[in-house]
C-alpha cells in the first residue's frame, strides 16, 4: 500500500498568485498522486491560480496505488487580498433630508471602513 505521505505545509499567500503544492508518497507499486479542492471535491492540477475573493481554501492530496486504502493529507491556504469596494449608485437628497449610503467591502484581512465628508466631491 501507499505509505508515508508528505505534503507542503499550510500556507498564507497574497492573491493574485500561482501556487504549487507538493505531495510525495512511498509504496509498491508507486502511488498515483492527485489533488482535489476540499470545498467542492473538484480535481485540480498544479500550479493553482489563486485569484482572491475567498479568505481560505483547502486542498487534499491523495496517494493511491491500488493496494489497501488511499492516503490523504489536507493543506490549508490562507488567502490575503486587497480591499475591493462596491458602492451603491449616487444618492441625491434635498438639504435636511436623510439618506442611506451603502458600501460593500471585501478583503483579507477584513478592511476597516470609515466615512468622511468630501465637500461636494465624490466620496468614492
UniProtKB/TrEMBL annotation:
It comes from Acropora cervicornis. GO terms for molecular function: axon guidance receptor activity. This is Protein CEPU-1. Coiled coil: none annotated. GO terms for cellular component: axon; neuronal cell body; plasma membrane. Keywords: Disulfide bond, Signal. It comes from the Eukaryota. InterPro entries: Cell_Adh-Cytoskel_Orgn, Ig-like_dom, Ig-like_dom_sf, Ig-like_fold. PANTHER family: CONTACTIN 5, IG-LIKE DOMAIN-CONTAINING PROTEIN. PROSITE patterns: IG_LIKE. Transmembrane segments: none annotated. GO terms for biological process: homophilic cell adhesion via plasma membrane adhesion molecules; synapse organization. Residues 1-78, 83-115 form the Ig-like domain.
Amino acid at each position: 500500500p501507499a505509505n508515508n505521505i508528505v505534503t507542503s505545509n499550510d500556507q498564507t499567500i497574497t492573491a493574485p498568485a500561482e501556487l504549487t503544492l507538493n505531495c510525495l508518497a512511498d509504496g509498491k507499486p508507486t502511488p498515483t498522486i492527485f489533488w482535489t479542492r476540499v470545498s467542492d471535491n473538484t480535481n485540480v492540477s498544479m500550479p493553482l491560480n489563486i485569484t482572491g475573493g475567498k479568505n481560505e481554501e483547502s486542498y487534499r492530496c491523495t496517494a493511491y496505488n491500488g493496494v489497501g486504502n488511499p492516503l490523504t493529507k489536507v493543506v490549508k491556504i490562507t488567502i490575503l487580498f486587497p480591499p475591493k469596494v462596491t458602492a451603491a449608485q449616487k444618492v441625491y437628497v434635498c438639504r435636511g433630508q436623510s439618506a442611506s449610503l451603502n458600501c460593500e467591502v471585501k478583503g483579507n484581512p477584513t478592511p476597516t471602513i470609515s466615512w468622511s465628508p468630501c465637500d461636494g466631491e465624490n466620496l468614492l
